[in-house]
Amino acid sequence: MSFRRYLPEKAVRLDLRTKLLPDDAPEDFDPKSRQNLSRIREGVINEVCELLVETGEVANPARLFRDLHNREKKAVTAVGHGVAFPHVRTLQVKSFVMAFGRSPEGLPFEAPDGESVHLFFAMAAPPYDDRTYLKVYKALASLILDPEHHELFLAAKEPSEILRALEIVK
Questions:
Q1: How many Cβ atoms are within 10 Å of 144's Cβ, its own excluded?
Q2: Please, what is the Cα angle at 39 between 34 and 45, to 5 degrees?
Q3: What CATH number does residue 68 fall under?
Q4: Residue 46: inside a domain, yes or no?
Q5: DSSP letter (8 states) at residue 125
Q6: 40-87: per-residue pLDDT in tens?
Q7: Which of 52, 89, 115, 163 has CB 3.0 to 4.6 Å from 127, enough for a Cys bridge?
C-alpha cells in the first residue's frame, strides 16, 4: 500500500509541541489530573489537525478540530503499545488524508495498556469513503504488532524516514 498519496511529508511532525507538563506548571501540579489529561488530548488533536490542514484537503480546520475532538471524547483512539489513531469521518475533508505526530517523551492518552503514547497516526475521511478508510486503518493497525516498525518510527530523525517506514508495510 502506498501511503505517500495520503500522507505528505509536510504532514509529519517528529516532536509534538504538546508536553506532559505545561511550561507554567506550579510545583504541586498533578500530571495525571483529569484537567491535564484533557489539556493533552486537546493539544494533540489540535496539532494533528494543523498537520491534516497541511495536506490541502481540509475545507474547514475549526470544524475538523471539533469533529476529531468530539470523536476522541466518545472513545479514546489510543490502542496500546505507545500508539494512537485519532480518526474521524467528516465532511470537512475533500478526500482521505493522514498526518503523523510523535511525542518523544510520551503522553498519557488513556491507552488500554496504561502506557504513554509516542506515535499518533491521524486520519480523516469523508463519510462516503469507507473503503479507503478501513483499508488504511487495517494496514496501520498491523504496525503495532511489529516491534521493528515501532522502533523505526521512534528512531526517525527526518520526516522522510517516517514515509520510508510506511512504504515497507505489507
A1: 17
A2: 125
A3: 3.40.930.10
A4: yes
A5: E
A6: 999 999 999 999 999 999 999 999 999 999 999 999 999 999 999 999
A7: 89
Backbone angles phi, psi at 114, to 5 degrees: 75, 0
How many domains, the chain? 1
CA distance 153 to 170: 16
What is the domain extent for residue 138? 9-17+28-167
Retrieve residue 108's grid coordinates: 498519557
Among 67, 66, 162, 152, which Cα is nearest to 121's? 162
Please report the sign of the dihedral spanned by the C-alpha atoms of residue 19, residue 24, residue 25, residue 27: positive
Q: Would 23 be classed as within a structural domain?
A: no
Q: Is 169 exposed, middle or buried (0-12, 13-18, 19+ CB in 10 A)?
A: middle
Q: Is the pTM of this model over 0.85?
A: yes
The C-alpha cell at 24 is: 507554567
**β-bridge mates for residue 97, sequence order:** 124
